[in-house]
Amino acid sequence: MLGPVILAASRSDRMRRLISAAPVTKQVVDRFIPGETVDDIVPIITDLTGKGLELTMDVVGEDITTPEQAAAARDAYLLLIDRIKDLELGTRVEVSVKLSMFGQALPGGHELALANVRPVVEAAAAIGTTVTLDAEDHTTLDSMFAIHEELRKDFPQTGCVIQAYLFRTEADARRLAASGSRVRLVKGAYKEPAEVAYQNRQEIDKAYVRVLRTLMEGEGYPMIGSHDPRLISIGQELARSAGRKPAEYEFQMLYGIRSDEHLRLAAEGHRMRVYTAYGTDWYGYFMRRLAEKPANLRFFVRSMVSKG
Fold it and tell me: Catalytic residue numbers?
């Protein structure tokens, strides 16, 4: 199993320096992270929305060690939302945030993250869009769900992410489905211990289907975060069985992965949202993309061999 090895490397300063210095790395990273600044990303936004796709935008970066860095992350998102407003794409482009970027891991981090994320949620609502709180490792989730619940008091459209591989997720899904939440379901991309998470791929897939059924049969808005053709097909069938119309759920996939499938689903009338990240602190995000799918790692290795 290479996934855990890659996830361990994502936390290694030595591996960060080695991979960052490789000449081919930028070329490969660009497949998943198509820019470093808001100006870089605007052509991507206009191109994808012009093709009938929707987006969720992520400013990458998680290693926040000071309140000043957390405030800078907040300001980066506010700048992004201003640009979405200028493009008049508030109905097509939302944003995704990791609360670690807003200071969640710092002393007093729960309150700090809530204080930093609230103006981002307010600004998003003002232009007709919303924010989804990304899930991180299991130790952060109680705080994330509490912040999600607090934000939904004033902004009920605020979404959150749940991870199928965690044992707790089926209970979380029942609670969120009953409350009418917007919920993105993913398999999970952090290295979690066997005490809290399924380790076997088949068990994770089974859990994904169980949780997705709960979301489809609930009162909320399910967002199917997967590139797996079988799970996508199952998601469509569960939606039909639950009597959901195409506007009542959506698919989400990562920028740079199965792009033809993005267009196919959109052409068939499905809501298809592309998770698009940008920024300079790309390393952790990039390594998790490699860990999630062997094809991503093979792509990177082939590029290293052919260009090295």
Answer: 134, 184
In terms of Cα–Cα distance, which of 20, 124, 59, 63 is closest to 277?
A: 59
Of 65, 62, 80, 85, residue with least CA distance to 280: 62
For residues 191 and 2, the answer to whether their CB atoms sit within 8 Å is no
Total-model pTM: 0.87
Q: pLDDT band at residue 284, thresholds of 50, 70 and 90?
A: low
Q: What is the pLDDT of residues 109-149, one digit of tens each?
A: 999 999 999 999 999 999 999 999 999 999 999 999 999 99
Residues 295/74, Cβ–Cβ less than 8 Å? no
Q: How far apart are CA 138 and CA 144, in angstroms?
A: 10
C-alpha–C-alpha distance, residues 304 and 308, integer Å? 5
Rounded to whole angstroms, the Cα distance separating 192 from 211 reads 19
* pLDDT per position as a tens digit, 229-266: 999 999 999 999 999 999 999 999 999 889 999 999 99
Q: CA torsion sign, 188 to 193 to 196 to 202?
A: positive
Asked if 60 and 33 touch (Cβ cutoff 8 Å), the reply is yes
pLDDT tens, position by position, 147-196: 999 999 999 999 999 999 999 999 999 999 999 999 999 999 888 999 99
Q: What burial letters (b/e) apply to 95-112, b meaning 16+ CB within 10 Å?
A: bbbbbbbbbbbbeebbeb
Going by C-beta distance under 8 Å and a sequence separation of 6 or more, which residues neighbour residue 231? 205, 208, 209, 212, 224
User: What stretches of 103-194 show up as alpha helix (H) in DSSP?
Assistant: 109-126, 141-152, 169-179
Nearest to 279 by CA among 90, 101, 67: 101
Q: Are 194 and 183 in contact (CB under 8 A)?
A: no
